[in-house]
Amino acid sequence: MKPRLETTFKAISNGDVTLRVATAGSGPLVLFVHGWPELWYSWRDQLAAFAGRGYSVAALDVRGYGGSSKPEAISAYTMRELTSDVVAVARALSHEPVILVGHDWGAPIVYHTALLAPEQVRAVAGLSVPYMPSSEVMILDVFRQIYAGRFFYQLYFQEEGPIEAELEADVAAALRKIYFGASGSAPAGVFSDKPEGATFLEGMIDPDPLPAWLRAEDIEVYAEAFSAGGFRGPINRYRAQPIDHEELSELRGASLPMPVCFIGGEKDPVRRFIPGLDLYTAGAAGAACEDFRGVTVIPGAGHWIQQEAPEATNDALAAFFAGL
């Protein structure tokens, strides 16, 4: 039986931005940061589990999502802005350095929080996206080279308007397709193997029935939030990457000094984003970490590992926390 989750929601300010934060438990703080297109709710199983294991736990709606502020400007979604939100929440909830856990875009956000404010960070767990320091070549230019003549979603997301319209035409259906398509339940290639000129949702499966890990009531929670708030803010994170490349030039090649672990799903499409390279090996995921505590690859799971395989994810996190 899963532990019952009883949360208290707090509004925490970072300048003009207000962040909705779910909190529970007492003890050392573990702060969870979600990715795209998710919410604090993505961490419901982790919040319940670790609140019951002697930790204070918190999960924010990242700016642009859910109950948090949704600025219009692309420049509001740079890594520097998003990490400042994480620091504001950490400082508001803890007098001591905190453990950060990030999934999808949340992983780069917590890695960069650790680089920009190391005094606030005790340790970092990254899920689905390993830490890879930036280089002289902007990551979008790398993707343009790798995916020349083929569809790649991050490049498709750069134009303002088309992706928002595509997703907002039927929010619940779009979310079902995205969650299924990048999960371990989907056939390989459904999420990413498309020709140049395709749209994002083209060829993606609307699952019926839903896979066992994804309930109709979960879709309702996400669909309500994105129907109310739209997708512009969340998509702007992808568009802010060129700004990051200029603003964070001092971090090129930087390593993470604190304890770091990585957890990924065996069938996650991110694992093969760079053809010929398995990003989920210790040599890849830990190459720029000074105190790397290892990789856990969860069999059968895809991109949404903390929701697809909550017990295995929690076991990996608990083992990491126990060694700190």
Can you lay out the helices and strands and say which pair or pack?
Elements: E1 8-14, E2 17-25, E3 29-33, H1 44-51, E4 56-60, H2 79-93, E5 98-103, H3 106-116, E6 121-127, H4 139-146, H5 153-156, H6 162-168, H7 171-181, H8 216-229, H9 232-239, H10 241-247, E7 256-265, H11 282-285, E8 289-298, H12 305-308, H13 310-322
Parallel strand pairs: 3-4, 3-5, 5-6, 6-7, 7-8
Antiparallel strand pairs: 1-2, 2-4
Top keywords for this entry?
324 residues, alpha/beta, Rossmann fold, 8 strands
Could you please describe the fold and organization of this structure?
- The protein has 324 residues and is of the alpha/beta class.
- The chain has one domain (8-322): Rossmann fold.
- Helix content is 35%, strand content 18%.
- The protein has an 8-stranded mixed sheet, sandwiched between helices.
- Helix 1 links the parallel strand 3 (29-33) and strand 4 (56-60).
- Helix 1 (44-51) crosses helix 13 and helix 2 (79-93) crosses helix 3.
- The chain is globular.
- The two termini are 28 Å apart.
- The model has no long low-confidence stretch (mean pLDDT 96).
